[in-house]
Amino acid sequence: MCGIVGYIGDKPAVDILIDGLQRLEYRGYDSAGVAIVNGGLSVEKKQGKVKGLSDTINRAELQGTLGIGHTRWATHGRPNDVNAHPHTNSTGKFAIVHNGIIENFTALKEKLITKGYSFESETDTEVLAHLIDDIQKNTMLPIEEAVRQALTQVVGTYGLAMVSADDPDTLIAARKGSPLIIGVGENEYFLGSDAAPLIEHTRQVVYLNDGEMAVITRGGYQVKSIDNVPLEKEVHELEWDLEQIEKHGYEHFMFKEIMEQPESLENCMRGRISIQDNDVHLGGLIDSLDTLLAADRIIICACGTSWHAALVGEYLIEGLARIPVEVEYASEFRYRNPILREGDVVIVISQSGETADTLAAVHEAKRQGVPVYGVCNVVGSTIARETDAGVYLHAGPEIGVASTKAFSAQVMVLTLIALKLAKGRTLSEAEFATYLNAVVEIPDKIREVLLLDEEIQGLARVYRYASNFLYLGRGFNFPVALEGALKLKEISYIHAEGYPAAEMKHGPIALIDRFMPVVFLAMKDSTYSKVLANIEEVAARQGSAIAITDNGMEIERLCEYVIKIPRTEEFLTPLLAVVPLQLMSYHIAVMRGCNVDQPRNLAKSVTVE
Ligand code: G6P
Fold first, then answer.
1. Of the four listed, 106, 338, 481, 564, which is most buried by Cβ atoms within 10 Å?
2. What tens digit of pLDDT does each residue of 108-155 get?
3. Which tens digits make up the pLDDT trace of 301-325?
4. Quick check: 471 and 481 in contact, CB under 8 A?
């Protein structure tokens, strides 16, 4: 959360920064700001979206080829103009943008106040600006050394960028806990909190690691550890291109990403399924397969939508491969002193590969000496780099804050892992072949589901004014019920709850009346007749039952709406069933006038605790 962008080169910085912020807006949209070195230092910042800033800044005053920018997701201090980044020292000589939380900012602030510093904002970042100023004033050190010394006094996390009017040829960046990437161009360098603002300028990038600082000049860059040890950094090539981060005529990224799922799943499966050899190949886990096969227990940690994919993974791996699985919220796992033993394997799932709690779960597994594997979408992300091995989703960039195509790709990767672990152990060659063929058919079946879009729009029109929703599913589709409810909450602000269908009688049934739509995931599987009984119970209490089903007739009698999806193997039904729920949430949110790509208070990548 919070987007950072920086530029040093021979082009005017301001438009590069504004474009970069626009591409980074999914990381936070409480305020936006830029600082440009132009003989002096000019700072423009404003509450609200980047567009607001872009429309009001005076570009003539912002001529300069060195600058930094920030789009904020507020942690300390309300979203307003004053708390917006960049923050400057009292003389306005240098400016800082920051992502993360300075945990000891109150103590540092008090100390600085006794030294005569006054504060304009409520942010922790302003403390850093004054702290660096204080060090520099007293020591006359070069700016990068003053920054380095300041950072040694800081407890907490930061991804920061800084420019100073006194050093018109230097951009400083430092990282601890919040990602930063240097983009290497021809006689120009870029900085980004992720790759999105860099892609249109360069594919060559350098990932900063925790505890590293970069001093970028017009002639090159040098990376050092915070302890001042120079480091050799590898230059990596970005996988994604500009094409993939454009809307291509779609009104919203979320809709584009829902519609892209057949292709994103094909990309996710590409090279990994061999019908001819009747096998699954997961290159990233090739050396870890024996460890996984020998595991006594697999613990999957994740947050948000990725946690829902993890729950599907539990059903998949236990159901197909018969290896015990536990699923944990990464935020709980990291703090409850979990017991890990020899024979345990931890898998973490994260679209961004940057979620702070999930990364902390990686560290906890490592601390306890347990192998930890990652399932990430963003290549080169921190979690991808810090895990022992893993599988990339290859779903392409996901820009919409509400995750859609990453969820289906996560479920697909977990399906492939489960099948690989089951092959030759719990599944015969013939069973495996049947299942593999069913997997290959999934993208086309999703294409069929996507054709229901108009029908689902009609459904959305009917229910758009509801204030509450219930989502019920069993077995493989219980996590899908949770995901459906989360999607609706996230983007339409309608209160929604997901439950295992049988739990309805233990509480949620009390809520049911004619104003309560209840969405059932009713697949013709081992639990179908039970779910049907639950629908009867809702209908008897005048609730509006909506069913997503691969079955017919009797369910139509009981439900107000029935969305029919194609049949597949039971363990693959989440991949089809989630799509109508994504579409329904999307259309309801659009009809309610909500900003689906940037829902209030949310951020795509939660890099603070
Ligand atoms: C945020 C996003 C969610 C996402 C969750 C986990 O809350 O808004 O869409 O599911 O973080 O993110 P990750 O990148 O770790 O999958």
1. 481
2. 999 999 999 999 999 989 999 999 999 999 998 999 999 999 999 999
3. 999 999 999 999 999 999 999 999 9
4. yes
Percentage of the residues of the chain whose pLDDT score is greater than 90: 82
Could you report the per-residue pLDDT of 228-262, keeping only the tens digit for each?
Answer: 999 999 999 998 877 788 888 899 999 999 999 99
329 lines ligand 1 (CB under 6 A): no
Taking the C-alpha atoms of residue 59 and residue 236, their distance in angstroms, rounded to an integer, is: 34
Active site residue 51: no
**Residue written as token pair 């979690």:** 383
* Helix, strand and coil in the chain, % to nearest 5: 40, 25, 35
Distances in whole angstroms, Cα of residue 547 to Cα of each of 80, 424, 507, 535, 552: 44, 37, 21, 9, 10
| Residue 233 appears among annotated catalytic residues | no
Q: Considering 238, 263, 281, which residue would you say is the last residue of a domain?
A: 238
Total number of domains constituting the chain: 3
Nearest atom in ligand 1 to 490's CA: 8
Model pTM score: 0.90
Same domain, 280 and 217: no
Distance 604 CA to ligand 1 centre (A): 6
> Are 100 and 233 within one domain?
yes
Distance, CA 328 to ligand 1 centroid (Å)? Answer: 15
Residue 554 has pLDDT above 90, yes or no: no
Domain that holds residue 93: 3-238
Q: Which of 306, 328, 357 to mutate to test the pocket of ligand 1 (most atoms within 8 A of CB)?
A: 306
- Ligand 1, atom 8: closest residue by C-alpha: 604
Residue pair 299/312 in contact (Cβ under 8 Å)? The answer is: no
220 and 299 share one domain:
no
Atom of ligand 1 nearest to the CA of 383: 15
